[in-house]
Amino acid sequence: MGDQGLGQVVSWYICTVATVPFVALRMYSRWSRFGKLAIEDFLVILALCCLIGDLGIQQHMWNLGLGDMSTVTPEKLKGILQMIVPGSILYVSSLWAIKFALVIFYKRIAVPGSRLILLYNIALGGLTATFLVIFFDILFQCYPYDKRWSSDPNYQCDPKAAQINYWITIFFNIFSDAIIIALPITMVSRLQMKLKQKLGVAAIFALGFFVIISSIIRAYYSHRNETMLTCTVSMVETAIAIIAACLPALRAMVIGGSTNDPSSYGKHYELSSARRRTTDPNRLGVGSGIASGPASGSRSKSHHNPNGSEDSLVTSGLSVGLDGRGKIRVETTIEAMYEDDGKSRAESSRSDV
């Protein structure tokens, strides 16, 4: 067991530990803002649990001699091979839990009735189908299971079955990542906002490209049967995916946004595929809440997503002050996403109380 192998084991723990604060902060942010967790939050927790479980399995394989297979006894080799199925299931489950969490999050902030809702429903169906295909292929590509560690040449798994699983996993994993990344980035590019804001939001999604790169590297080492490096890249890939899934919630916590308080001044952009001008905030994909002062005695509620979420990707503030007559003035700019003769424009509204 050389120093290089030991360094990879240390990297397994670094990847796992690094995800914990991100997940914890995400849960804190969600609970403090909404008083509850959504289904995508539980999926992120599930992904973290699978990552921790995968770490335990890989540590067990390391203890059996994974770092130096030339010293492994037949009994220890059997123990290592027995961990392949549970390890593979945890790896795939962790990645697909993150994929589901991201798509559900994107769907939650999409404008109801828009084309994106249909696209994300299709994406959820595709993720379900691909996960089930990979899951059952892992379970039954070689059955009975003792064929996997049998030393009898006449009682071993068909090598073709392993190749089929390899290509299915690689293709479904990379293809689904590319789709999940492409849809929101396309919508963000259409939002009418400052370039700095747009790049910041796109950067959150762009982390997914690192996940794809990790998947390709993992496929390379897996094809060469370099188990240690395959395990290491798997941990890196899963850790990056979990962190990327936590960033939108953390961004809302740092920058701020709408809250459950109906007097909130927060407002947010929703992802929309609309391409025509409209003055209805729900169709624009922009929600704003303006609380009036005592002079009016009335209050307007902040925009709530019909899906029951106030998640946001981009926030902007309001200008509140007194005019020359001593009245409260609330001024806000609603940056609408529409196209008029091929040009995007912004609308401004002002209300005096």
UniProtKB/TrEMBL annotation:
<dbReference type="Pfam" id="PF20684">
    <property type="entry name" value="Fung_rhodopsin"/>
</dbReference>
<keyword id="KW-0812">Transmembrane</keyword>
<feature type="transmembrane region" description="Helical">
    <location>
        <begin position="118"/>
        <end position="140"/>
    </location>
</feature>
<feature type="compositionally biased region" description="Low complexity">
    <location>
        <begin position="289"/>
        <end position="299"/>
    </location>
</feature>
<feature type="region of interest" description="Disordered">
    <location>
        <begin position="266"/>
        <end position="320"/>
    </location>
</feature>
<comment type="similarity">
    <text>Belongs to the SAT4 family.</text>
</comment>
<feature type="transmembrane region" description="Helical">
    <location>
        <begin position="199"/>
        <end position="221"/>
    </location>
</feature>
<feature type="transmembrane region" description="Helical">
    <location>
        <begin position="37"/>
        <end position="59"/>
    </location>
</feature>
<feature type="transmembrane region" description="Helical">
    <location>
        <begin position="6"/>
        <end position="25"/>
    </location>
</feature>
<dbReference type="InterPro" id="IPR052337">
    <property type="entry name" value="SAT4-like"/>
</dbReference>
<feature type="transmembrane region" description="Helical">
    <location>
        <begin position="227"/>
        <end position="250"/>
    </location>
</feature>
<feature type="transmembrane region" description="Helical">
    <location>
        <begin position="164"/>
        <end position="187"/>
    </location>
</feature>
<feature type="domain" description="Rhodopsin">
    <location>
        <begin position="25"/>
        <end position="254"/>
    </location>
</feature>
<keyword id="KW-1133">Transmembrane helix</keyword>
<protein>
    <recommendedName>
        <fullName>Rhodopsin domain-containing protein</fullName>
    </recommendedName>
</protein>
<keyword id="KW-0472">Membrane</keyword>
<feature type="transmembrane region" description="Helical">
    <location>
        <begin position="79"/>
        <end position="106"/>
    </location>
</feature>
<dbReference type="InterPro" id="IPR049326">
    <property type="entry name" value="Rhodopsin_dom_fungi"/>
</dbReference>
<dbReference type="GO" id="GO:0016020">
    <property type="term" value="C:membrane"/>
</dbReference>
<feature type="compositionally biased region" description="Polar residues">
    <location>
        <begin position="305"/>
        <end position="318"/>
    </location>
</feature>
